[in-house]
Amino acid sequence: MNVLLREIKKRADGRTEYVDTEISTDTFDIGASADSTVQLLGAGVLPRHAQLRCDGANVVVTAIGRARIVVDGAPVRRRALPVGGEFAIGGHRFAIREAPAGFDALLELARDETVDASAYEAAFRTDLADTWLSKRRAAWLLLAFVVVATFAAPLALRQSGAKIAHHWYVPDDVQWTSGPLAPAHALAVGDKCVSCHTDLFTRVPSKACTTCHDRVGEHVPVHEGAAPASRATDRCGACHREHDEPSSLVVRADSLCIGCHATEQPRGATNGAQLAKVHAASGFTAATHPPFNAHLLVALQRTSGTGFAFDWGFTVAPVASAREASNLKFPHAVHLDPEKVRSNATSKPLGCADCHTLSADQLHFEPITMERHCRSCHDLQFDETDPGRQLPHGQPLEAVLAIEGHYLKKFGDPQGYREDRERRRIPDHEVVEERCTASAWECAERKTTDEALNQFTKRGCVTCHVVDDNGNRDIYSRFQVVPIRLVANYFPEARFPHADHATLKEKTGDAACLSCHKADRSKESADLLVPDVDNCAECHGDRTVADRVAVGCIDCHSYHPNAELLKARTERASL
Amino acid sequence: MIHENLLRYRRARYLWWGLALIAISVAIYAVPPASGARNGGTWQGYTLGTIGALLIVWLAWLGVRKRRYASGAGAVQGWASAHVYLGTALVVTATLHAAFQVGWNVHTLAYALMCGVIVSGFYGVYVYLNHPRVMSQNRAGSSREALFGELFDLDAEGRKLSERCDPEVRVAVETSIARTALGGGVLAQLLGSDGSKFVRGESASSGAISNRDQQPVIDYVADRLPRANKRGEAATLDALLGVLTRRQSVLRRLRTDIRLSAALKVWLYVHVPLSVALLGALVVHVVVTFLYW
């Protein structure tokens, strides 16, 4: 558009001077900045103040931003002015006049002469506050973004139950996580926070855990009587913590156990006073942990029936005073004495590991059996002249019948017997063979009785077994061997990793075993070779100090009953 | 009174406060946690978090305090000194609260915003300590208003002198004054860039060309000086050159002043909005912690 700008200037001599400027521009703007079409100065003029355009005969003036344009004494934002119209910006007055030919408009400008140098700064944008920058606007925008993106949107998505797959750009509640999930949980639950966080402002309920973990044993079995409902550990989350780094899932703090167990707790068992309580424990020192109680077997002879049958029960007794009742005769000291016992195969002294083999669980030992552990030395031969002949083990009646059969054959076939006798004579070994001149049957029966008496009362079975002699004349039913059962696990309520203790300080091998189990001084099998808590406390403590290895409650005890403990509870319940 | 700067306020009293806060935070962090894992969810974590949150609110309160001129709660300079030292110590408290763990979550967002606020604050401390001195040297004892007044007078003088010159010089001088750029947008202020232009009188149709640092127009007028042929024209051009070079000097000072002033203020456009966003993120962080307890 073409505009003729006519400036009215008062000259020093009082006359008025008109200065015309032809302006041909697309955008006609008025402001304090030097690049404005018309530059005005003064306190009330912004760098970019107003824009002008022609609309037919009218001139439309529009304020920019917070600029102020005055028409007829009132501020306007935008006004179409006809010829003769006037407006003011700052102290500067504009008037629209009849446009001469070739022009769209004639603008008359009377500048405010009072503007001085002090207003000159307003012609320029010299402060950041004059730019688009705004602390307030940026603050509100950022605040709104933070609150909407990290709180309102996730909350709305969660409450709506909308199933939107998680991506990094989806503003869901995954961003509320305080740390990664344990890998298995991440796999199973992943981004679905609501699977565990079922209610807002509520800790994760145990129900959320047991939905999947439905086979976790109760700490206190329900059938043993209800535990107090207010226990802190009733909630899975009390001990199991997610989102920790590094991920551990199990809080190992002793305080969680000691919270209840610092005082004696009822076990809820229905029988046996010694089982009804869980002793108080507040740490792992000889002073704060109760002495160990061993879980022992007892053979109970049935009073009814044949009179020689046993039921196996269990008893709990303090380690310090407990005696084993396995019915086995076995002096550990003799077997560990190189002067008395050496291996048949290697002639080396016996060691612990010759009989005790760690089981696959690294906690306990393989069962001791006659066949595997005793027989290589303690064979079952009964006739020196026939060393290949062995008694059957574990069947007393069969053993007597085997002896009888052997001698019947021997005496019933004198020819064979003599030849055999000559052939097997051992040099320098005088065998006083009792000559029997009676019938072969009688000789065999007499020999059978003698040998059975020998086996059951002098040497043979009786060496290791407790033999019951009822004095019956009938040799077949006179002797009964009391059965042997060895305890497989003295502490079903605790775990002790034997494998980890195979090396103790500077001790290894048998020395390590003997430092806790005084087997080399045990003369009878009734000795319980299990150490008490003070023995453990020599190396362990409940906190990290220089001369102790720290152990927590759950290093030995488990909160959820394991298979061993469940078995022990069943056995105890059957007492 | 000898001028004390922000950091040396009352013999750096708040430096010791900051160090004490760091020591307390480290001591709390050093207590072994019962569960074995250190994080914001232990009692140590909650304690450090509470200290940090209260501190953030107090630090943000400086924005309110500095506007309350009637307050009796200590000098603003003391507040600012404490603001700097305790704000710096907050890095330690918050990092230990988080136990050095970060992730893509709202908690780390709050931490990152806090770090942004503190880093921008470090820049702020630097410019507050350094720039006022440099600016006052640049203005050589004058003020910005005085410099603008001088520029205004020089502009008027230049225009008046140019009226006595031939039209080409007049156009050049008039346009160089009209198209003098000072300040401007954010970048122009921060970088002190000069977008001034002028129109060479004899080639007005080709439009405005760069007049960076006013040197082109000075060269243009100086170039005319040897060719002056009218009586008195050389003297006028000489006087005009004097005005233009004085103008150049004033504009340089103003441009430097605007640049330094922008640098002195620009960090607040980061510091303040980030602080407000941090307050929001802090509230979300705390609420969310208990929302998914």
Contiguous helical run count of chain B: 11
How helix-rich are the residues of chain A, as a percent range? 10-25%
Judged by helices, strands and strand pairing, the structural class of chain B is mainly alpha
Greatest interface: A-B, 56 and 60 residues
Shape of chain B: elongated
Structure class of chain A:
alpha+beta
Q: Count the DSSP helices of chain A.
A: 17
Structure summary, number of beta strands of chain A: 22
- Percent range for β-strand residues of chain A: 15-25%
Mean pLDDT of chain B, to the nearest integer, reads 89
Question: Overview of this structure, please?
Answer:
- Helix content of chain A is 24%, strand content 17%.
- With 575 residues, chain A is an alpha+beta fold.
- Among the domains of chain A are: 129 residues, Tumour Suppressor Smad4, CATH 2.60.200; 165 residues, no CATH class; 100 residues, no CATH class.
- In chain A, the strands form eight sheets. Chain A has a five-stranded mixed sheet with strand order 2-1-12-11-10, with no helix packed on it.
- The N and C termini of chain A lie far apart (113 Å).
- In chain B, strands 1-2 form a two-stranded antiparallel ribbon.
- The longest helix of chain B has 34 residues.
- Chain B folds into two domains: 155 residues, no CATH class; 118 residues, no CATH class.
- Chain B contains eleven helices and two strands.
- The two termini of chain B are 55 Å apart.
- Chain B is mainly alpha-helical and 293 residues long.
- Classes of the chains: A alpha+beta (575), B mainly alpha (293).
